[in-house]
């Protein structure tokens, strides 16, 4: 049976991308990505089509960069087969072999990883029990629900201790109970010294898990850092307010005197106003309401969401 990896130092580099670009014909999937990831939970975020799956396939060694270099634990993956058993992947999609049982599938992968038949059988049963599939372990994968098959994929990803665990949309098709259970598995792996990369296009899905966030947009790495740093960037985004009130001109005048306003537009009873400092604008609004006597009937914000942050950061790196 493969030996468990020795715990890495918290500041060790588990995965490194050096100027990695990946093209598929004329389509550019990733462009000039430089990144170092260390042990812990990493949230890989971006809208659909941002390049998350391409990033994970490159990180897993399933495809090669068109240019640049990828290193696992300081080594080159395609030159050191011994690194293979230190990497685990739960891929996106639902392409499991339908004529095998859950246990046969997990045991087969463990055998490929070098486990003996006895150890593979024991470990397969243990990990399927951990994901709540003890009673379904001898059931054909074709007869399982999508959520159950997703748990089988997660079982094989966590079947052996790994230094790098790559999870592509791992919470898809899971109910809230199993989302919490999988979150516990992810945290356990990170606590044991693994770098666990969790991809999602939903910020809320990973913000409770990840300490470090990587933001991709249209194949570009637009930001990477601690969660709080990324959230500060989001919070400080230029914000647009649409305010409906009886006299928007009076409210606009009061806001102009109190915030670094960069845009004012009045359409009927709707005031559209933008400031370069979101905090200042939000602090100024209650004061402006009191000064003008205009109580808003409705306030809508734009530009303070994750997609707006992606777009603004992507524009900066063009």
In brief:
By secondary structure, the protein is α/β, with parallel strands linked by helices.
CATH H-level name of the largest domain... which superfamily? P-loop containing nucleotide triphosphate hydrolases
Strand content: 25-35%
CATH hierarchy: architecture of the largest domain = 3-Layer(aba) Sandwich
Instruction: Name the strands of the widest sheet in spatial order.
Output: 5-6-7-3-8-9
For the largest beta-sheet, the strand count, sense and barrel status come to: 6 strands, mixed
Order of helices and strands: EEEHEEHHHEHEHEEHEHEEHEH
Query: Total helix count?
Result: 10
Query: Measured on Cα atoms, how large is the radius of gyration?
Result: 24 Å
**First and last CA, distance:** 48 Å
Query: How much helix is in the residues?
Result: 25-40%
Structurally, how many domains make up the residues? 2
* CATH topology assignment of the largest domain: Rossmann fold
**Overall pLDDT level:** 87
Could you name the key traits of this structure?
318 residues; alpha/beta; Rossmann fold; Alpha-Beta Plaits; 2 domains; 6-stranded mixed beta sheet; 4-stranded antiparallel beta sheet; 27% strand
Plain-language structure description:
The protein has helices at residues 52-59, 102-112, 117-130, 146-157, 176-191, 203-206, 227-235, 248-256, 278-292, 306-317, and strands at residues 15-24, 27-37, 40-45, 67-72, 87-90, 164-168, 195-200, 212-217, 220-226, 239-244, 261-267, 270-275, 298-302. Strands 5-6-7-3-8-9 form a six-stranded mixed β-sheet, with helices on both faces. A four-stranded antiparallel β-sheet has the order 11-12-10-13. A three-stranded antiparallel β-sheet has the order 2-1-4, covered by helices on one side. The chain is of the alpha/beta class and 318 residues long. The two termini are 48 Å apart. The model has no long low-confidence stretch (mean pLDDT 87). A hairpin with a 2-residue loop joins strand 1 (15-24) and strand 2. It folds into two domains: 15-226, Rossmann fold; 238-302, Alpha-Beta Plaits (2-Layer Sandwich), CATH 3.30.70.100. The chain is built from ten helices and 13 strands. Helices cover 35% and strands 27% of the residues.
């Amino acid at each position: 049976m493969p030996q468990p990896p020795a715990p890495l130092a918290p500041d060790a580099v588990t995965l490194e991308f050096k100027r990695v670009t990946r093209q598929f014909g004329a389509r550019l999937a990733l462009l000039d990505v430089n990144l170092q990831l260390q042990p812990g939970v990493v949230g890989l975020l971006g809208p659909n089509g941002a390049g998350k799956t391409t990033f994970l396939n490159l990180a897993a060694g399933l495809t090669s960069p068109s240019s640049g270099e990828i290193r696992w634990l300081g080594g080159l993956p395609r030159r050191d087969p011994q690194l293979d058993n230190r990497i685990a992947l739960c891929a996106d999609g639902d392409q499991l072999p339908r004529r095998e049982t859950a246990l046969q599938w997990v045991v087969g992968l463990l055998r490929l990883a070098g486990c003996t038949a006895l150890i593979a059988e024991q470990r397969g049963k243990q990990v399927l029990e951990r994901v709540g599939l003890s009673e379904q372990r001898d059931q054909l994968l074709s007869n399982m629900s999508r959520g159950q098959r997703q748990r089988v994929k997660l079982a094989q990803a966590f079947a052996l201790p790994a230094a790098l665990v790559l999870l592509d949309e791992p919470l898809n098709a899971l109910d809230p109970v199993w989302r919490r259970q999988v979150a516990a598995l992810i945290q356990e792996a990170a606590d044991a010294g693994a770098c666990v990369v969790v991809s999602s296009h939903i910020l809320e899905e990973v913000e409770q898990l990840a300490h470090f966030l990587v933001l991709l947009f249209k194949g570009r790495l637009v930001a990477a850092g601690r969660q709080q740093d990324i959230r500060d960037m989001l919070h400080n985004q230029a914000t647009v307010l649409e305010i409906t009130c009886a006299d928007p001109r009076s409210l606009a005048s009061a806001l102009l005197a109190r915030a670094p306003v960069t845009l004012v537009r009045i359409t009927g009873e709707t005031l559209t106003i933008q400031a370069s400092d979101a905090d200042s604008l939000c602090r100024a609004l209650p004061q402006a309401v009191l000064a003008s006597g205009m109580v808003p009937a409705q306030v809508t914000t734009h530009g303070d969401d994750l997609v707006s942050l992606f777009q603004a950061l992507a524009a900066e790196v063009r």
